[in-house]
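Predict both folds.
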Amino acid sequence: MGRKKRVPEFEETAPDDFDPANPYKDPVAMLEMREHIVREKWIDIEKAKILRDKVKWCYRIEGVNHLQKCRHLVRQYLDATRGIGWGKDGRHPSLHGPKVEEVESE
């Protein structure tokens, strides 16, 4: 008789009662929101790792033709790595990419 392995249960969506304007109003919702954000970041990081392994495999298999054959994987990998991670600058993920210069209209 062995023990049954239990899988921890968690919500896959953000908590409904979290108020971003006043995060300390409900401490339980704040912690649930923090766990949700961390879980989503880890998922994005692991997706990027899988894509990185695919790029490595493609480079190794394709050899000298890797520039043409692996271009789509490299683009997916670069898009997946943009805006993820644990940076302390607090910027929104859309601001992590390359700077886009605004064109002045006449």
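Second protein follows, with its predicted structure tokens after the sequence.
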Amino acid sequence: MTISSKSLSKVVIMLILVSFNLNVSMIDGQVAPQPIVIVVTMRNKLNDLDLQIRCDNVKTHDVEQSTRNRIVYNCSFSWYPGIHRFNIYDEIRDDPACHQQCNWNIKETGPCRVPDIGAPKCYPWEI
């Protein structure tokens, strides 16, 4: 998925995650996975620059909890003159902080997760 935003200051990506280890329920005696919806909102806070975003779903094996996969969405953010990468949603990092609604400001120095209450938490770009 690739998104471009200059005039739009807000980009919303809805991540629908299906995992056999998340929210299971019984249907006719069988275990069926229930989709988990995670809404990630990214606001372009670059100074009048065109921001392009491309995100990919990556599931990584969590060694500490070997019975399940850890859900990670990795994105590339590009504007002139370069490209930066960041895991815009990492289940272990973000679920305790924002559960199913994560808000981010995208800045030149890195992305900042904006909570409903309290100060934003900023991260450096991944290299």
